[in-house]
Amino acid sequence: MSVKLTEEQNKLIEKIAKDNGFSDYELITNPGSEKGDNFLGILTTVTIKNEDKRLELILKAAHQSEAFRKAAPLRVAYIREIFIYEHIFEEFKKFQEEYNIPNPFDSYVKMYAASTLDGHECFVMENLKVEGFKLWDKKVPMNAGHISKVIKEYAKFHAISIALKHKHPEIFKELTKDITDAAFQDGNNDEENKVKFESFIKAVCSTASKAFEDDPVLTGYFKEFESAIYNFVATDFKDPEYKQVIVHGDCWCNNFLFKYDDNNNSIQPSLLRIIDWQITMLSSPAYDFCYFFLAHSPKEILDDYRTYLNLYYDTFSKHLQHFNCDPEEFSYSRMEKHVSKFMVFGLSTCLMVLKIMLADSEEAPDFQKISENGDLMEGMNFEVGNMDAYKNRVKDILIFLKDNNFLTN
């Protein structure tokens, strides 16, 4: 089914075609995602081709629904993501080249062009699926090879922030001045932010609590979490101690594209690309680590938590040393303390994202329609068809957190 592009989108495609040597060409457009795959954008696959060559692209555009734009910070999110591609990734690339970094962080897609026109925010990037990159099956916990790959790339990404802040503090300050808070927060309205967050927690907890309603110990422990998460967001989340690095922020599996040396063997990916940088902000390295680790690890990997924290920190410290920085700039014990704080936040995010990961396409909430009738967070009050899988995943995570005393500090 062909997709009709807007005037602004056509201008971007025409510019890309010209920049890449196309004069006469055919344009093919098709829907680029299914319901439940992407919530703050509309994805369209775009092919520019002539007799000699073709260019495969993905167009990501903000919803134009007035109700949705009022309910969700779409403009802020798109401006932020475009900024990440145009400035932060470019600065990080230049900084790594300055120090001739071996195995640099480059796990992001190429962006060809973007528009920040109000109401028409969009950008065009390379289509990696035609190059053999694949999404992980979101209904299945990740294996060790994939979890290790993501953790190592996050570690390198975070290390660049620490090194840049140490070597070029004025550049780091300029890069992060407009991303100190989450894109979904209104920096001028703490009370409204509080109400929205309380609505979010209520929505995700209503289903999660059913996973252990017959277990009084876990039920009591979960109540501790509900108290802890409000306190964390009101205090710790804003603490300068936890504003150390630029984080990805949106760590669910549909934002990772993997490629394999052997397409018949998908156990160990050789390449990774991380997408969707709309929630990127200044935070703790534990933000990405905890969110990703809790949301995607099966029980056996949760139980082997120390191995993966050590893998993260070993990669992080080696990348820092390539910049001639002492890893004590952000020590292992400091990382442990951050992880202990951010596990409560990781739980809050994975309770939401697990529902989406385990839901069938037709079960996933349609946030555009929901925005026309009320609070977006009400859209999280749905039950997935496979509730047994959801309950088992949530229960495994909560037992892991309880056994490691993560919600008691």
From TrEMBL:
Pfam families: EcKL. SMART domains: CHK. It comes from the Eukaryota. Gene3D superfamilies: 3.90.1200.10. Residues 123-322 form the CHK kinase-like domain. SUPFAM superfamilies: Protein kinase-like (PK-like) (SSF56112). InterPro entries: CHK_kinase-like, EcKL, Kinase-like_dom_sf. PANTHER family: PROTEIN KINASE-LIKE DOMAIN-CONTAINING. This is CHK kinase-like domain-containing protein. It comes from Psylliodes chrysocephalus.
